[in-house]
TrEMBL record, chain A:
Cleavable signal peptide: none
UniProt domain Cytochrome c assembly protein: residue ranges: 101-309
Pfam families: Cytochrom_C_asm
Residue stretches spanning the membrane: 12-34, 74-95, 107-124, 131-152, 164-192, 219-242, 254-272, 284-304
Source organism (scientific name): Allokutzneria multivorans
Lineage: Bacteria, Bacillati, Actinomycetota, Actinomycetes, Pseudonocardiales
Main localization (coarse): membrane
Record's protein name: C-type cytochrome biogenesis protein CcsB
UniProt topology in membrane: Multi-pass membrane protein
Keywords for the protein's UniProt record, in alphabetical order: Cytochrome c-type biogenesis, Membrane, Transmembrane, Transmembrane helix
Chain segments annotated as coiled-coil in the UniProt record: none
InterPro entries: Cyt_c_assembly, Cyt_c_biogenesis_CcsA, Cyt_c_biogenesis_CcsA/CcmC
Domain of life: Bacteria
Length: 314, 518
């Protein structure tokens, strides 16, 4: 029933992707580390009055600096890893003849893939490559937990999950969660950058190199605005599925409850950004809190409490 | 007057965005214990366990309603206040929106260069032509053309009204959803019942008594249920080699109101994820289990056969426990009857494995069924007036010495136990039962429609941008070398979402070159 060759290839593919992401993380971290501090440059100009001396050692041929070369390599490798990552999910699906998100390993892995793709899309429009390490780190943590701690052998779905709604409901949850992850990272960075902009002494190490607070805020908002309707759709699709599977569309099962809470907090974030007194860091905190609720929903509810969604567990 | 001011201020406070936001976060916070603590609604048994484990804390939490968060007064208070606040916010917004729909786009500002988006050029066409071309280009926008005192022609245009419409639809749909949910809760019900496969009687939705458990809506007393009957002809479960369930399928016959009169039955398949939808309610397959069948041959030769459902103890191996009870036949004297009642109680394994005489189950399917049972004789306590579980014997009867163990044995199908008085108890075989839920919720469709509207409204309000564009075509001053026209374009996005720039750039490029457009 399960093609074990394909599932073995899927595992290889997954492990390769994981290893490459790790390299990406290191490259991005180095890129960030070697990026010149823009504030210091300004100080030098102010102090010396003359042109800044060329940065010896970091300027390489072709006019690209070392950090830029590191970052570009990292992005190319990210694309490669994302392809392998996608292949690992595809092979899982082919091996089991079902959608490749039937348990927590596959679900977590798919969320990470969405986060990576969302990140690559963000890169096309925004000049934020040098903060790649901050996106890769939480993504890799999640991927590691999913792949190494929650791994399960490829197997068919249990009867309760056999419905075309698993394609609709779960894929919406994956899509939204992956995009929310990148949005959450942008808000965390915003919360570091904002106080730094007000007072350069605060977060003096990390702050200067981060993108401007206003653009981080806008990025976080646009990603959440994209993901929130998908999340809403996922919850509604889940309710329709629950109606035909469990005899009620909503029953305050722990997963349903925490999804409701996350939805309310995200709704709060969208409102907070338009409310006097809540703009800025307060609303960013709300966005971060909402993402933490999503993480809580993924791990705590599936692994600790026992509800109707627990079968998706380990 | 002071009262009025107080009321007005309270209303203003309640309907302000800040209050709504605080209520929203309060709602999220209040729902949290519903996920962290077991709830009576979904896990009544775990609430009981919590009481046993924390006998000091549990009653306190219970008094605060923390085991029934979603039915508690404080939770209801939060969402009722939130919705009142919402009404107070939506009514003026709807009025404002209706007014805006009728209003013309605002006058072109004097200085377009001050706007966030701005472009300028000089063209050969006359101001009239520029504005005419612009009007063509701005099809789909709400436009207004004006001629200013100095002879300039202007056009003001606005687009994205659907954003606010989507916003209003989203919020109104949320309220409609709450109403539909409440309606369903008032007039709906939920009942559970166990049906034996092959049982000719089946189950009829004729009253509350037909159910094993029944949760009525506030306005349901069980007298107005729409009748229907369901029979389970057979039930099949298949399992993977590792014991994981693969499929459940029940062949059922059912009668709706018309069939009941005609006496006809219709056939259907009942599966997980595929319920049987009838006018009187929807029938869901929620569980299954085994009912071992025993035949007792009494000393006088009379036989009685019973197959009571046993309760599944282990959901993986389907090891079950239960008690099948017998009354001695033909005994009318209640005193005598109370000394000769029998109960066969113990464990059932669909695929038995033995460790000495200890039996366990190693697989959920019927590969090698066996029972490990005690036979109890005496007074079962049926007439004591106390309610009795069908899954166990009344322990107090055993403790009081009125019900005694007379045999303990493991049996495979066909094997029997002989008691000292000549009574024989045979394990005949195994039947299957399915647990079904009947749900009736007249608000369901309303909730679905509201849900779709929520989604549509949300999509519109988050994706559509409300934006404005103005154009002013000013004729060149008298005496200029050629009759050229100065065209200025300005743009403003009225929402906090960025991203108008690109659209404005292409739009301005078209507007500033009216000749090349066609």
């Amino acid at each position: 029933m399960v093609n074990s060759n394909l599932s073995t290839f899927s595992d290889w593919s997954f492990n390769s992707a994981l290893a490459i992401y790790l390299v990406v993380l290191v490259l991005h971290a180095a890129e960030y580390g070697f990026t010149r501090n823009p504030d210091r440059k300004r100080e030098l100009v102010a102090a010396g009055g003359a042109e800044v001396a060329p940065d010896l050692g970091t300027t390489i041929t072709q006019g690209r600096t070392l950090p830029e070369r590191l970052g570009r390599t990292a992005v190319s490798l990210t694309v490669l890893a994302a392809v392998l990552h996608g292949v690992s999910l595809l092979l899982r699906g082919l091996a089991t003849q079902r959608v490749p998100w039937g348990n927590m390993y596959e679900f977590g892995s798919a969320i990470c893939l969405v986060a990576v793709v969302a990140w690559l899309v963000v890169l096309r429009k925004h000049d934020v490559r040098h903060i790649g390490a901050f996106v890769m780190l939480p993504m890799l943590l999640l991927l590691f937990v999913a792949g190494k701690l929650l791994y399960v052998e490829a197997a068919p779905l249990m009867p309760a999950l056999r419905s075309y709604w698993i394609t609709i409901h779960v894929s919406a949850a994956i899509l939204a969660s992956g995009v929310f992850l990148v949005s959450g990272v942008a808000s965390v960075l915003y919360l570091i950058r904002l106080p730094h902009e007000a007072d350069p002494e605060r977060f003096a190490v990390m702050g200067p190199k981060l993108p401007a607070a206003a653009s981080l805020d806008r990025l976080a908002y646009r990603l959440t605005v994209f993901a929130f309707p998908i999340f809403t759709f996922g919850i509604i699709a889940g309710a329709i599925w629950a109606e035909s599977a469990w005899g009620r569309y909503w029953g305050w099962d722990p997963k349903e409850t925490v999804s409701f809470i996350a939805w309310v907090i995200y709704a709060g974030y969208l409102h907070a950004r338009a409310t006097a007194g809540w703009r800025g860091s307060r609303s960013a905190w709300v966005n971060v809190l909402a993402f933490l609720t999503m993480i809580f929903n993924l791990f705590f509810v599936n692994l600790v409490t026992t509800g109707l969604h627990s079968y998706a567990g380990v | 007057m002071a009262t009025f001011a107080f009321l007005r201020n309270t209303w203003r406070g309640l309907t302000s965005m800040r209050t709504a936001l605080v209520l929203l976060f309060l709602l999220a916070l209040a729902a949290m214990p519903g996920a962290l603590l077991p709830q009576r609604l979904t896990a009544g048994d775990k609430v009981g366990k919590y009481f046993e484990e924390s006998p000091n804390l549990a009653p306190v939490l219970d008094r605060l309603g923390l085991f029934n968060v979603f039915g508690s007064i404080w939770f209801s208070a939060i969402y009722v206040l939130l919705f009142i606040s919402l009404v107070g916010c939506l009514i003026p917004r709807t009025a404002e929106y209706a007014k805006q729909m009728r209003a013309k786009p605002v006058l072109t500002p004097r200085n377009l260069a001050r706007l966030p988006h701005h472009a300028k050029s000089t063209v050969d066409s006359s101001p009239e032509d520029v504005v005419a071309a612009a009007r063509e280009r701005l099809r789909g926008w709400r436009t207004d053309v004006r001629v200013e005192d100095d002879g300039s022609h202007t056009i003001s245009a606005e687009k994205g009204f659907l954003r606010e419409a989507g916003n209003l639809v989203f919020h109104f749909a949320l309220m409609a959803m709450l109403v539909a949910i409440a309606f369903g809760k008032m007039f709906g019900f939920e009942g559970q019942v166990i049906i034996h496969a092959g049982d000719a009687q089946g189950f009829c939705n004729s009253g509350i008594y037909a159910y094993d458990s029944f949760r009525p809506g506030l306005r349901v007393d069980g007298t107005e249920l729409q009748p229907f009957c369901v029979r389970v002809n057979d039930f099949e479960a298949t399992f993977l080699r590792n014991g994981q369930a693969d499929s459940f399928h029940a062949n059922v016959s059912y009668q709706e109101a018309a069939d009941l009169e005609a006496g006809t039955w219709q056939q259907a398949g009942l599966q997980v994820n595929s319920p049987l939808r009838l006018a009187g309610g929807t029938v869901y397959l929620l569980g299954h289990g085994y009912s071992p069948r025993f035949t007792v041959t009494f000393p006088d030769g009379q036989k009685r056969t019973e197959a009571t459902q046993w309760q599944t103890m282990n959901t993986v191996t389907l090891l079950s426990q239960g008690a099948t009870k017998f009354d001695p036949p033909g005994v009318t004297d209640p005193e005598k009857r109370r000394t000769g009642q029998l109960a066969v109680t113990g464990l059932f394994a669909p695929t038995a494995a033995f460790e000495g005489t200890l039996m366990t189950s190693v697989f959920p399917d019927l590969r090698d069924p066996a029972v490990a049972v005690d036979v109890m004789r005496g007074d079962l306590g049926n007439e004591s007036g106390k309610g009795q579980s069908i899954f166990e014997i009344d322990k107090s009867m055993v403790d009081g010495g009125r019900l005694k163990k007379v045999a303990r044995q493991n049996l495979r199908i066909g094997e029997e136990i002989a008691l000292d008085d000549g009574t024989k108890i045979r394990f005949d075989g195994v039947g299957r039962w399915v647990g079904v839920q009947v749900g009736y919720d007249p608000g369901r469709l309303g909730v679905l429609i509201a849900g779709v509207l929520v989604l549509l409204g949300l999509g519109a309000s988050l994706s559509i941008k409300r934006r404005r564009v103005w154009l002013r075509a000013t004729p060149a001053p008298e005496g200029a070398e050629s009759a050229r026209t100065v065209v200025e374009v300005g743009g403003l996005a009225r929402t906090d979402q960025a991203g108008y720039g690109e659209e404005f750039t292409t739009l301005a490029a078209d507007l500033l070159r009216p000749g090349k457009e066609r």
